[in-house]
Amino acid sequence: MSSNTDFLLAIEGLTVSFDGFKAIEGLNFYMDESELRVVIGPNGAGKTTLLDLICGKTKATEGSIKFRGKELTQLREHRIVWEGVGRKFQNPSIYEGLSVFDNLEASYPEGRSVFGALAFKRDEQVVQRIHNVAREIQLEDRLDMEAGLLSHGQKQWLEIGMLLIQEPELLMLDEPVAGMSASERQETATLLKRISQGRSVIVIEHDMEFVAALGGKVTVLHQGKILAEGDIETVKQNKHVIDVYLGH
Amino acid sequence: MDGFTTQELMAILAMQGFAGVSFFSVLLLMALGLAIIYGQMRVINMAHGEFMVMGAYATYLCSITLGQFPGMTDYYLFLALPIAFASAFAMGYLVEWVLIRHLYHRPLDTLLATWGLALIMQQGFRSIFGAREVSVTVPGWLRGSYQPTMMIDIPLNGIAILVLTLFVTLGVWWLLFRSRWGLRVRCTTANREMSGAIGINTKRVDRMTFALGCGIAGIAGAAFTTISSTGPTSGSLYIVDTFLVVVFGGAGSLLGTIASAFSIAQAQSVMEFFMGGSMAKVLTLLTVIAILLMRPEGLVASKVRR
Amino acid sequence: MTLINRLFTGRHASLGGIALLALILIVVMPMALDLYRLNLAGRYLTYAFVALGLVLCWGYGGILSLGQGIFFGVGGYAMAMFLKLEASDPESTSIQTTPGIPDFMDWNRITELPWFWVPFESLTFTILAVLTLPAAFAFVIGYAMFKRRVSGVYFAIITQALAVVLTILIVGQQGYTGGINGITDLRTLKGWDIRDDSSQYLLYYLNAVLLIGCVLIGRWVLSSKYGRILTALRDREDRVRFSGYDVANFKIFIFCLAAFMSGIGGAMFTLQVGFMSPSFVGIVPSIEFVIFAAVGGRLSLLGGVYGALLVSYAKTLFAEAYPQLWQVMIGTVFILVVLILPYGLASVVDRYWPLLRSRLPLARRSSASSSSTTESRP
């Protein structure tokens, strides 16, 4: 059981219950480095809860989450971020009153303590890095714009950018294309494929077309347990998956 | 506790316990109203104490009016209760319409605005009734006390208030959990948009809930007159305690509110005997705050997955 | 360099605005007002310290404290204890049963100076206490609450309850605190009469300079990355937390800073007014401090100062003549500000100042710099 040091992320026997209701039950989940993984499943399957557990938003009732061999279940949220785990929420969660530049700077992984933030200096290196990330998410010409004025899709990208600037080793995205137009979806798929070079990414998604466009291994969750795992074609053929999720 | 025999100690506990009952009753009635309002719309009503005072003054007016008619003096309370409720209810209805409905989703601002309202109401009372405290003549049938043993002496008005409180609490329980209207209230609390979509007039529900909470404060005011005299600022003395009761009980839980009102009132009352009123209050407040810090969700947490 | 740079580029209170404030406080008011009025103004300005703190922690941090009187009181009482001990030398208290202790202790049959009074015989200790005790109190309160994620309305109510607790303690333990009357009859500081004309002027100037210093500190904090994170966590606490920040520490810091400023205000109050009493500690003063910040503008440091001056002045004006009317007025102001002017007078100035400015022929050329006066608003 414990030879999980080869994995980037190794979740074993994970259970969480809310007043007896087990949203996740005895889950085992492993991820390699530089892997892009898509998690699908019907509503209430425990997908978002799984991300909540990894990033520390919800505390596990039982089980372990090891990231690079380090136990995450005992760490506080910001420490988990320091370990290299980034989380994007389902609804775009950005600072609407601040400019795009300030949004990215607020996530810049320096000056994270109170006094560090007071002494933080916006030097050339910081500005350069912010520009690089902004280019990646196609917002370089919007850096001075108030973030609240961005389109829905751009807000989603900005939040992805806010994670990228921290250079996480594991990036978790909760339905990143919800509410996006078809062309935005296409661009997001390209973006995700590009940023998964050199880091691991977990994506929660409903849209099977988008899942297919991403490629990568698929995990199907159902009632807090893993129903099937494998590449998309195998999963699509799986009888249980068709029964509970995809439909006939 | 040297200096007291066990028997004396028991008697003290029982007496102080019953002295605490009146305090418990007023506190619970106040907290019920506040908890309903807070649970329903996350609005903190800093003027809640003033609604109580309104009920108290209404009771006072009833007592002097009926005092004009010989033979009626003893029964003014039966008239006063509905009037106290109705006047505070009407005022609450008006306040929601003029002020509160503009401030949903801004809980801290509501707190400040209702504080302003409290100041205005206090001044209103002072202009109408004067700065001096007024008191009612407690009806003859509420005077005197019940003596189960030689050492224990329980005032009748305390028992009467307790009975009244039990009735009101039961009424609130029935209204919220057994009536059609309560179902609408709980729907709105759980999911405002959905409730609107299925045809519940959520604005009306809000207004009625706010008014109801204020009305119950009015009843608390009527009960208050039997244990203390009423002045323009009487309500502000209760407001901090009432808030702590609501928060301590776990907002939105009827059972929690009752338990927390009971424990706060009893702790205060029993400690009062040994260390005097002000230190008892300090110790009670600090204990409640300390427990709250250990259990920020209050005694009875609402079971919602977040 | 960064420090100086930030002082000049910060947008949370324009440097011109601060210079204007300095001009008003240091030149205009001493010239325009007689000593009695100036002393009153100095007293109002001590409240401005608290209002500044509230702008920082409530306006920018979203932490509404209804117990700022605690910190004003701690600073004020620390100073009052020192002055009282100096006023209670054995010679001038020789008629007491126990000479050499404050008169109210003697009245309450206390025969020995309580241990926590002893260090306040030293001025150095007292100044240190004024500067650190309020922040230390705030640290304990903030640590206990923010680490457990108590916030919003709960935080407001618990701070209010703490203000009640402190008031009851001060009033109840009159042998140690002077009770409801407070600590009175304060005359000299190291032999220097704080009540004669020249010292009143000096104290006024000291107060004004300290206040401007606090405005500059606030401006520096807000224009740092810390300031942006603070605003961010007011609006999206979870995003900040999951960007790798320990949110509780950020809240504790701003709460302590607000307490620090309030404490200085309290000490300056004691020095200028000559007494300190529980009526500046409890619920009512605490909420009055909030209204200063609300009227001036919760997102404007300068607004907090002007709010404190304006509301206190109005209070003196009306409360003397029509005490009843005043209470209704202040209540109405509370409601109106919240309902129609949530960002206070500063938002009015922000809106109309650029317009006014562009009409002035002289300033037209420099209108490019006028954008620096606008505040960031959620």
Residue stretches of chain B low in confidence (pLDDT < 50, at least 5 long) are none
Secondary structure: helix percent of chain A: 25-40%
| Strand order across the largest sheet of chain A | 6-7-8-3-9-10
User: Gap between N and C termini of chain A, in Å?
Assistant: 37 Å
Number of domains of chain A: 2
Question: How would you characterize this protein structure?
Answer:
The complex is a heterotrimer of chains A (248), B (306) and C (378). Helix content of chain A is 37%, strand content 25%. Chain A is an alpha/beta fold and 248 residues long. In chain A, strands 6-7-8-3-9-10 form a six-stranded mixed β-sheet, sandwiched between helices. In chain A, α3 (100-107) packs parallel to α6. The longest helix of chain A has 14 residues, at 182-195. The mean pLDDT of chain A is 88. Chain B has eleven helices and two strands. With 306 residues, chain B is mainly α. In chain B, β1 and β2 form a beta hairpin. Chain B has one domain. The model of chain B has no long low-confidence stretch (mean pLDDT 85). Chain C contains 16 helices and two strands. Chain C has helices at residues 2-9, 15-32, 35-60, 68-87, 103-107, 123-146, 152-172, 174-177, 197-222, 225-235, 237-241, 247-273, 283-296, 301-321, 323-340, 344-359; strands at residues 188-189, 192-193. The longest helix of chain C has 27 residues, at 247-273. Chains in contact: A-B, A-C, B-C.
Outline the fold blueprint:
The complex is a heterotrimer of chains A (248), B (306) and C (378).
Chain A: E1 9-18, E2 21-31, E3 36-40, H1 47-55, E4 62-67, E5 70-71, H2 77-83, E6 85-88, H3 100-107, H4 114-119, H5 124-136, H6 152-164, E7 170-174, H7 182-195, E8 200-204, H8 208-214, E9 217-222, E10 225-231, H9 232-237, H10 239-246
Parallel strand pairs in A: 3-8, 3-9, 6-7, 7-8
Antiparallel strand pairs in A: 1-2, 1-4, 4-5, 9-10
Helix pairs in contact in A: 3-6
Chain B: H1 6-41, H2 48-67, H3 76-98, H4 107-129, E1 145-146, E2 154-155, H5 156-177, H6 180-190, H7 192-197, H8 202-225, H9 234-249, H10 254-275, H11 277-294
Antiparallel strand pairs in B: 1-2
Chain C: H1 2-9, H2 15-32, H3 35-60, H4 68-87, H5 103-107, H6 123-146, H7 152-172, H8 174-177, E1 188-189, E2 192-193, H9 197-222, H10 225-235, H11 237-241, H12 247-273, H13 283-296, H14 301-321, H15 323-340, H16 344-359
